[in-house]
């Protein structure tokens, strides 16, 4: 996916903000003709890290009961992850709350939760390899993580992908500048200036919350595949005209 904005400048470069300052710094004027191009391009790579979001929701007739059930689930989930050899530093707490149900919630509780007055929730993010994401989720759900499922896909080191996106955008800009020059019967010269802004394009992978733990310990992990990570870069380039 490519987006391109073009501008040709012969007598002078007229711009605003930072681009105007660049023009003044480079001394671009009637004696220094130039072509400016702004181009956006992207680079892709398969994610090499997964962030599995896991959590639970439990209820109690009073604060103490809700907290006790939360404590049981909380420790069971972390113990199961530890037993599965998930490193402690890969598990990060995100949120935990113990609160009374409001009037609307009390009126709309299912029959199985009729006498419940308090709710406790807790969530974590667990970093793993893409290959281990399904197993991590499976272990947590079977230990009681009934509010789990979304997975974020990342690069451990995004700098190489950002550099690739920037290089593609610059090459794209140079190609466009050359075609512009050919159409105007002039020759493109050296690159006078280039700047870029790299940005990540989020590619979330939402999954439905799992409302109950697996019915049997024999249930297989879900089939989960890694997704591509994308980085996009926009390059502003000034080329001399010979």
TrEMBL record:
PANTHER family: SLR1258 PROTEIN. This is SIMPL domain-containing protein. GO terms for biological process: DNA damage response. Residues 1-20 form the signal peptide. It comes from the Bacteria. InterPro entries: 26kDa_periplasmic_antigen, SIMPL/DUF541. Keywords: Signal.
């Amino acid at each position: 996916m490519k987006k391109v904005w073009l501008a040709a400048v012969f007598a002078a470069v007229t711009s605003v903000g930072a681009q105007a300052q660049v023009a003044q710094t480079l001394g671009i004027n009637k004696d220094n003709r130039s072509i400016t191009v702004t181009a956006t391009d992207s680079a892709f790579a398969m994610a090499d890290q997964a962030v599995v979001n896991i959590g639970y929701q439990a209820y109690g007739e009073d604060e103490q009961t809700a907290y006790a059930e939360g404590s049981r689930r909380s420790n069971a989930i972390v113990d199961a992850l530890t037993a599965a050899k998930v490193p402690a530093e890969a598990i990060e707490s995100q949120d935990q709350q113990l609160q009374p149900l409001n009037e609307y919630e009390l009126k709309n509780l299912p029959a199985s939760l009729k006498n419940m007055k308090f709710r406790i929730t807790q969530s974590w993010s667990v970093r793993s390899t893409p290959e281990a994401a399904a197993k991590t989720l499976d272990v947590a759900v079977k230990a009681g993580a009934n509010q789990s499922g979304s997975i974020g896909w990342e690069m451990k080191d995004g700098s190489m992908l950002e550099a690739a996106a920037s290089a593609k955008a610059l090459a794209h800009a140079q190609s466009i500048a050359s075609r512009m020059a050919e159409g105007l019967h002039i020759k493109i010269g050296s690159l006078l200036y280039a700047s870029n802004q790299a940005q990540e394009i989020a590619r979330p992978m939402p999954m439905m919350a799992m409302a109950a733990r697996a019915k049997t310990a024999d249930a297989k992990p879900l089939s989960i595949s890694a997704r591509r990570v994308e980085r996009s870069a926009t390059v502003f380039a000034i080329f001399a005209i010979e």
